[in-house]
Specification:
Blueprint (H helix, E strand, L loop, with lengths): L10 H12 L5 H16 L5 E5 L6 H15 L1 H6 L7 E4 L10 H11 L32 H15 L3 E5 L13 H15 L2 E6 L11 H5 L1 E5 L8 H17 L12 H8 L3 H17 L7 H7 L3 H18 L3 H11 L11 H8 L24
Parallel strand pairs: 1-4, 1-5, 2-3, 3-4
Length: about 375
C-alpha cells in the first residue's frame, strides 16, 4: 500500500485501512487445516516431508504465519533453557529468473533466514586440514560454490536444531533444467531432511503434485495435507463463506458499512471460494474507493478491481484438477485391493445366498446351466 497516495484521506480512516490490510481471519477451513498440519508435524518421524497443497490464493502464507506463532509458543520453555536453538526455520523459494532452479540461491536465502553470519565467507575445510592450517584468504560469494553453501546449511541446522523447516512457494522446485529428473530435485530436500533429522514442510500450489509419489521411498516418508477452497456445492461451505464476508464487512475501513452479503454470489464467483483472493480483492477496492473519496465500498468498484472471468476460470480448472487427484475414491481403493490380490471389499451374506455364491462356477459363453428338461409323452392319450 502506497502511503503517499492516501495522504489526503481522514487519519482515522487511514488507520482503519492499515488495520484492514493487516487483518487475518481465522476462518474454520484455516483452523482445521492448521490442526491437521500440526498433527502431521508432531506425528512425523525426523527427516520426513509434509506437503501442504492448495489452490493459489487459498491462504497458505497466512496459515504458515499462524503455524509459526504456534511453534514459537510451544518452544518458549525450551528456548529459555537453550537460547541457541531455533523453534523453526521459515524460507520462501523464489521463482528462478533463468527458468531453472538454482540451489546456490536457495541455500543462501536459507542461511539468511537463519540469520547465519558471514554467508559469503563459507568454505568447506578438507578433512586433513587442521584448525591452524586454515588459509587467511577465504573465497567470496563469486567463488563460494553451491555445495559449500549446502554444507554450511546442514551444519547450521545441526547446531541450531530446529524441529521444523517451513518452505513456502515450494512449487518453484519444479523449475528444472531440461534433461534433469524431477525426482532429483526432491531427493536433495529429502537428503537434507534425513541428514539433519528435521521435518520439512513444503507449502505450495497443486503444482507440487508433480513431486507426489515419485518413488516408493518418498511415498513412505511423506504426508499430504490438503488446504481446500470453499465449495459452492456444499451448503455448509456456502454458509461459512457468507460468515467470512460478514466479518470483512464489519472490518471494512469506511464511514458507512458496505453490504457484501447481498452480493455474495458475485464475490464467490470472482474469488473462486478462496479467502486469500477475496481479501486481496477487497483491499484493492478499498484503497481505490478511499482515494476517490467514496463513503462506502460500491459494487461498481468491486467489478472494476475484480479478477477477470478468464483468470477465475483458469484458477478453477487447476483447483478442480488438483482436488480430483488428491481425493481418493472407491474405484482407487478397489484398484489397490486388486493389485494386492485381496479382491473387492467383502459383502456379508447368509443362508442360501452364501451357498449360491460359493457354488457359482465360471462358464463359457453359451453354455447352459444344468437342469431337467420337460419330457413330453410320445404315446397317444387314452380315449
Amino acid at each position: 500500500m502506497r502511503v503517499e497516495s492516501l495522504a489526503g484521506i481522514d487519519p482515522q480512516l487511514f488507520l482503519r485501512l492499515e488495520n484492514f490490510c493487516a487483518f487475518t481471519m481465522a476462518h474454520p477451513r484455516l483452523l482445521s487445516t492448521r490442526e491437521r498440519l500440526m498433527d502431521a508435524i508432531d506425528g512425523a518421524a525426523p527427516g520426513s516431508l509434509v506437503m501442504l497443497l492448495g489452490p493459489t490464493g487459498v491462504g497458505k502464507t497466512t496459515l504458515r504465519m499462524k503455524v509459526e506463532r504456534h511453534l514459537m509458543q510451544q518452544a518458549e520453555q525450551v528456548l529459555a533453557g537453550d537460547p541457541g536453538r531455533l523453534p523453526f526455520v521459515s524460507v520462501e523459494v523464489m521463482a528462478p529468473e533463468s527458468g531453472r532452479f538454482l540451489w546456490k540461491d536457495y541455500f543462501s536465502r536459507f542461511l539468511m533466514a537463519m540469520a547465519e553470519p558471514l554467508i559469503n565467507r563459507k568454505v568447506t575445510r578438507p578433512a586433513n586440514l587442521t584448525r591452524c592450517d586454515v588459509p587467511e584468504s577465504i573465497p567470496d560469494t563469486a567463488t563460494c560454490s553451491g555445495s559449500e553453501l549446502g554444507y554450511a546449511m546442514e551444519q547450521a541446522l545441526r547446531y541450531r536444531r530446529p524441529p521444523v523447516v517451513l518452505v513456502d512457494e515450494a512449487q518453484h522446485f519444479a523449475r528444472i533444467a531440461s534433461g534433469r529428473k524431477l525426482s532429483d530435485q526432491l531427493d536433495v530436500i529429502k537428503s537434507i531432511a534425513n541428514r539433519t533429522q528435521t521435518v520439512h514442510v513444503l507449502l505450495g500450489t497443486y503444482e507440487l503434485l508433480a513431486f507426489r509419489n515419485l518413488s516408493a521411498q518418498l511415498s513412505r516418508r511423506s504426508v499430504d495435507v490438503h488446504f481446500a477452497r470453499y465449495s459452492a456445492d456444499s451448503p455448509e461451505d456456502r454458509q461459512i463463506f457468507q460468515n467470512v464476508l460478514l466479518t470483512f464487512q464489519q472490518q471494512a475501513p469506511f464511514a458507512e458499512e458496505p453490504d457484501l452479503l447481498s452480493i455474495w454470489e458475485f464475490l464467490y464467483e470472482r474469488s473462486v471460494g478462496c479467502v486469500g483472493i477475496l481479501k486481496d480483492w477487497l483491499v484493492r477496492a478499498a484503497i481505490t474507493s478511499l482515494k476517490n473519496g467514496e463513503a462506502t465500498l460500491s459494487l461498481k468498484e468491486l467489478e472494476r478491481t475484480a479478477l477477470s472471468v478468464s483468470q477465475c476460470e483458469k484458477i478453477l480448472i487447476e483447483s478442480r484438477e488438483g482436488e480430483v487427484r488428491l481425493n481418493d475414491n472407491e474405484d482407487s481403493r478397489c484398484h489397490l485391493r486388486t493389485l494386492l490380490g485381496i479382491g473387492a471389499p467383502k459383502v456379508e451374506s447368509t443362508g442360501r445366498a452364501s451357498a449360491q455364491i460359493g457354488n457359482t462356477r465360471s462358464k463359457r459363453v453359451g453354455q447352459r446351466r444344468p437342469k431337467r428338461d420337460p419330457i413330453q409323452s410320445a404315446m397317444p392319450a387314452c380315449v
